[in-house]
Amino acid sequence: MKHTIKRIFIITITALTLLFGSSCEKVDFGNINQNPNQTTEPITSALLTNVLAGLSATIWDQGNVRTIAGYYSQYYSQTQYTDNSRYAKTTVNIDVFYAAALNDLQMIINYNSDDETKAKAAANGSNNNQIAVARIVKAYTYWWLTDIWGNIPYSQALQGKGNPAYDNQETIYKDLIKELKEAVGQFDAGPAATGDILFSGNISKWKRFANSVRLLIALQMSKVDANLAKTEFASALSHSAGVIETNENNAAINFPGGVYDNTFYNYYAVVQRDDEAVSKTLTDWLSSRNDPRINVYGSSTIGFPYGLTRDNAVAFGNANTNFARPVHPSRRAMTSPMFLIEASHIWLARAEAASRGWTGESANLAYSKGIEMSMRQWGVFSDVGFATYLSQPSVDLGTGSALEKIINQEWATWYPNGIRGWSLWRRTDLPVLTPAPGQSNAIPRRLAHGSNEKDLNPESWKAGVASYTVSGQVDSQWGKMWWDK
Amino acid sequence: MKKLLLLFAMQMSLLMSFAQTKMVTGRVTEENGNGIPFATITIKGSKEGASADQDGKFSIRLKGTEILVISAVGFSDKEVDISGNTNLSVSLVKSSSDLKEVVVTTGLGIKKSTRVTPYSAQVIKSEDLSITRHTNLNNALAGKVAGVQTRSQSGAKLNSETFLRIRGGLGIGDRAAIYVVDGTITNSFDINPDDVEDLTVLKGANATALFGSQATGGAIVINTKKRNPSSNGIGIELNSAFTAEEVYVLPGYQNLYAGGANPDLAKFSWKAGMPDDWKAMDGKYYHDYTDDASWGPRMSGQEYIPWYAWYPNHSRSFKTGSLSPQPSNNHDFWRTGITANNNVSLSKSGQGGTMRLSYTNQFQSGILPNSNSDRHTVFFTGGMDLSNHFTAQTNLSFTSLELKGDFADGYANNAGANFNQWFHRDLDMGILHELRDLRSPYGTMATWNLRYNPDGYDPNNPQNFYKANYWDNPYSYYAQRPRVTYRNALTGDASLTYKLNNNFRVKGTVRKSQRNEHIENIATSLLQASGLQTQNTASYATAETNLQRYDFELIGYFNKKFGDFNVSVNGGGNIFKFKQDEVTANTVSGLNVPDLYAISNSKNPATITNLRRRQQINSLLGSGDIEYKKLASISFAVRNDWGSTLSDLKPSLFYPSLGASFIVTELLKTKPSWFNYGKVFGSWGRKPESLDIFATNFTYAVNANQWNGNFLMGVPNLIPDPALTGSLITTMEVGFDTRFLKNRLGLNFVYYHETADKIPVDIPVNGASGYSVTTINAAKVERSGIELILNAKPIAGKDFSWEFNTTFAYLIDNPVSRLFGDQTRIPIPLPPGQPQQFGARFAQAYQLLGEDWGQLFGNGLKRNAAGIPLVNPATGLFVGDPTKEYGSIVPKTTGGLINSFSYKDFSFSFALDYQVGGKFFSLSESWGHYSGLFEATAAPNDKGFNVRDAVPDGGGVHVVGVSTTDEKTPVDIYVDAQTYFHQFYNASIAEPFVHDLTYVKLREVSLGYNIPLKKIGKVSKYVQGAKISLIARNPWLIYSDSKDFDPSEISNLYGEDGQLPGTRSLGFNLSLRF
């Protein structure tokens, strides 16, 4: 009996020892806790493609924040649920844009800068070329963010921790200019960045793009600091690498189709919505000038009155089922490109600068060049028609206020980019826009922050929006930008 | 090191057990042959003795021919002279009291007496579980366990898993209990209530240490039915239930105003280009079809053109109708559901073996069109005595489920949400049903919610006129959404026990729990073609899931009496392995070939994802009880885990628990006749949690879709703290358990306090840091409360008896005492599988620092210091207060009552449950008011005019408050109804739609009749028992703060959004025993 007991005991001990290994403190489970579907190393070219693929949403984002900017600029009218175009307070989280594209760009910069990883990163282009591209896109992204919200996290952002303080828009603007200058100078002769679906590794196009963004940023300061604006504008314009002057150099998102398709196409053909319209403000503007772009800006030429109540909007939609949905279907096929910056934008900016006396260029020439480029881009240019168009009193710079006409053309040309249209209007109060009917409030001058700022970065938020309190309302949508005095 | 100590203890106990000489074995039974668990065997005149096991089996070593005294709670003592007999069978006679030993089951399937259980461990017997043979175990538990809140789901969602919350919140998110069937962890929905013999509910870290961190939300420990070894012959049982189910709780609607946005009918003028048939309607009037709200014309039976008149080729084409209210249209939509629940079980025992085989088929056809569920369960349990030393045992359950139906219940779903969020009150459901197959001239489905009113008819695009704006005919919709789930689940174990003697045995067990699921989900091409903005893209989606859990256990058990001390210890090891594999695929952006539902037919590249998760935990564990006489005992349980998900910084986790019980009544020299049993107990336990799989990973995913040959990758948004560990839960519990008046009254009381510290929080960080989420150890949550169980048998006559069982729990407090840094609030992450956050712009559940767990927080009405709402004196509209704290989403008080009467052959039972407090937000109600559907939007105001009447005519909603300008000037104003009810959406105000979760609900009623077989005669030779019962489930929502939605079936963590309606059912059950 004793024998049996002993044997049982030995078996038990041996079994337990086998089960648990000899070490009491640690057991090696191999890599079973490592997700087999993901990698631990970022691929910088893939990060770049990811960011560039998302840029088309800065033009129009299917009813979200950047579309709201398009309501405020009265490019679009809401046709069914009209709260946003009637200035209901919309609160959108800004920080989601940091955690997405901006951090991807920061990772490209870090991975190409860090001594431990830069050699590996260089497989996707020279370190300098990748960093330069990332800095340019980063500056472009920060630019539209600050133009919507004003003071935003900037210098302390993207550091992986903490509650970044907000920087003044003025500081940000100046730093963006610096970043763009430095980035253009940083490109080297090494291999271009791969994964570049915007300019396919064409560095001179990147330089033109960066200079163009810098030029536009400078112009946006016209109201607040004309001297600085003038200096920076001229500096960007005279840069040896040049700015975008022809449509071949436009910053275009060329959709491959399939999953990645034109954003307007996606909305109407894939998501299958039937709302959103070209605002009657815009179609009236175009038709009063016999502007041929009216035929391609929308699916029809029937503009939708801006800012109607739901009842009135539904009634109008019923009576005009053929109202203009944004962008003519022939210009928003599955693979139709969308444009971040076009030659026309730059020429018209040059016309404005010239008209303001900042440059020695001919405002008239730049003006007609800008309009021509836009019409060519949209495929509605004809020599005869163009001459007639230019000769109209409403277009011809020879009569009335040249500056006002130039800015009006800038507004019409920036369509469908609502952020730029709205920013232009806030800077110049042109064109003259009538607020939504029955709304005592004027057109908003910025967007209020979403709950992520109040909840997750409360102190910075409080300090950051301090200057945006309007009639007792904190973080008001009627608070004014630094450049919107 | 802990492991070695444990082994040493085991070794010592082994060696100590071999000093005696003669072994006597036996079994203590009731008169009917059922074993009496944990009977006490003492040698007369000495302090030595032994305890029987849970089946009544015992063994004892004797020096000579002593006399044994056999005793057990609820039975009279019996003395046995063994005189040479070494295999005894002792049957005890029940004493006058009705008390029976309650057996608690804990981890590793260890059963113990409540006498030595120093923590709350309520046991529910099968008869209390199966009053009406619920199809779902959790629903069957509602109100029956103190401190457990059951959040059921609508009966329309067939076989959906309901959520049990034990003792409030103790984490950042909710934690679900684990379900342990015969020692194997499985899912609640794979458990067939018919096979459950009893279940024990274990709550805190003191009670669940043996489970390690898997049971942080508590454990429901289930014993399945087993064949009694000493029963004779074959046991056959048949249970057959049929119930019919109908929709029950529906909101109150307005029945005065028709659909649309326009309060006036519009005149139809036929124009050239329109279909000629429409001429018949020229000059007639129609209401707005395009808007899906009900702010339309007042209904007075006037002539109008209904939606279907525009479609040709049916009997009602081109004919006007009368515009009349349809008060029951929502009710009429729902079918009568049928549930057939049939179970047969066979059992047999023979020399050295027992087995039980049970088969259950549960078929349900739901109240939602095109929904049904068919579930088959085979359950087998068997044991073999291989030799004197070896026994083998197995428990195997196989469940196969085929579930059909589209049970989506979020915003804008096509049933629950359609009728309550966006609908026309004038729609005749009978006609919608009649015309469910009606098609437009272009082959698309006809709908009430036309994209255009007739003046929008465009001869160039005539097909568009007939298409749906936002909604299809709900009957047509459900016919075009075939969705099916096949689920096979296998749970079971096989064990081999080596029994050295009656003091020591070793058991090796292999356990497996496996679930395979196949899902197919289709939206048809017709559905896509029929809508303009319904956003129903034709699609096919499929998913395969394979979940496997393995446990390999080796445990030694030792049980012996040393003088006045009875020692029962066990210890061993366990290896747990977990595998989860999933492949999902769905078409993207539509189908190339219409009506071909295949992944390869995807218009854009199909999305295919797979998931592979693995986990392993190696554990050493042990537990034991040391009892002194029957007076006092100490119990302990320890476990140490080495887990694959733990970081290298803290590779192992240790779970200790310790408790003591003291039987007061044993101290009394003479027990007063009214005080039969009194136990006080206290215990403490600590439980570190493990980490989730991949919780410490920081990795990059590759986007499956390339951009012209460039692949895409994003930096993850979540960055974990490298030093991350699980949280640490500490539980302290004290209580008493008493029985009075010949055990006819029992009262059990528990006070608990629990703390979860260093809870890993996926904290949303400000995205400007570059990441939107990080995981850190930070938060701390505490909870304390009391739980009471009262059993009484006021009447126990020969013919008539009355018995009731009631539970009550009160959550004293449940504070979130730390979040992280100086953070004061974070939104609650939803439990896995729950739809996304809803209605966040109005209100949602947060953890607020210093407040009770789960605060509903968001936009309320801004009020002045005196609590009077601020009103804009010009518009009469309220102002939002974005920092309104409504209160916790957890009810303060929960409880229930089971009441049973029996009179001769009749029995009558009912179970009700209730909860008090807790908040929920109804998004449907919010939309239902916005859309002019609910009663209040067309109710009379205090002047007797309808609120929809024009304000100058005496209509409008009466608003009283103080002016927004100075917060004191009174404002008294009438506001146009639509403006008034639209303000809550426009200003994101949730307050009018927040309600208490308070309810009292009659859950189960059963009226049974035991057919007196003996009187019938010969039948009784074959049939031992026959009972027929009339059963009703959820028959009566007795009280509810919200009249429109059943608060016991809230679909979501903090409220409801398009929730499917409640149901109630009535039927009968036939039970036969052969």
Structure description:
In chain A, the strands form four sheets. Chain A has a two-stranded antiparallel ribbon. Chain A has a two-stranded parallel sheet with strand order 2-8. Chain A has a domain at 44-261 and 335-435 and 454-472: Alpha Horseshoe (Serine Threonine Protein Phosphatase 5, Tetratricopeptide repeat). With 485 residues, chain A is mainly α. Helices cover 49% and strands 4% of the residues of chain A. Chain A has helices at residues 2-20, 44-53, 65-72, 95-113, 118-121, 127-149, 169-186, 203-219, 226-237, 263-270, 280-288, 294-297, 310-319, 343-355, 363-378, 383-391, 402-414, 418-428, 451-456, 458-464, and strands at 76-77, 91-92, 152-153, 166-167, 251-253, 277-278, 338-341, 448-449. Residues 19-23 of chain A have low confidence and may be disordered. In chain B, the strands form eleven sheets. Chain B has a 22-stranded antiparallel barrel. A five-stranded mixed β-sheet of chain B has the order 10-15-16-13-14. A four-stranded antiparallel β-sheet of chain B has the order 3-2-5-6, with no helix packed on it. Chain B is built from 14 helices and 54 strands. In chain B, α11 packs antiparallel against α12 (977-986). Chain B is 8% helix and 46% strand. Chain B has 1074 residues and is mainly beta. Chains A and B meet through α1, α2, α4, β3 and α13 of A and α1, β28, β29 and β30 of B.
Stretches of chain A where pLDDT falls below 50 for ≥5 residues?
A: 19-23
Amount of beta strand of chain A: under 5%
What order do the strands of the largest sheet of chain A run in, or round the barrel if closed? 1-6
Radius of gyration of chain A (Å): 27 Å
| Fraction of residues in helix of chain B | under 10%
- Structural category of chain A is mainly alpha
Query: Tally of extended strands of chain A?
Result: 8
Query: Could you say which structural class the secondary elements and strand pairing of chain B correspond to?
Result: mainly beta
| Amino-to-carboxy terminus distance of chain A | 100 Å
- CATH fold category name of the domain at 44-261 and 335-435 and 454-472 in chain A: Serine Threonine Protein Phosphatase 5, Tetratricopeptide repeat
Mean pLDDT of chain A: 92
Silhouette of chain A: globular
Helix content of chain A: 40-55%
Count every beta strand of chain B, where a strand is a DSSP E run of 2 or more residues: 54
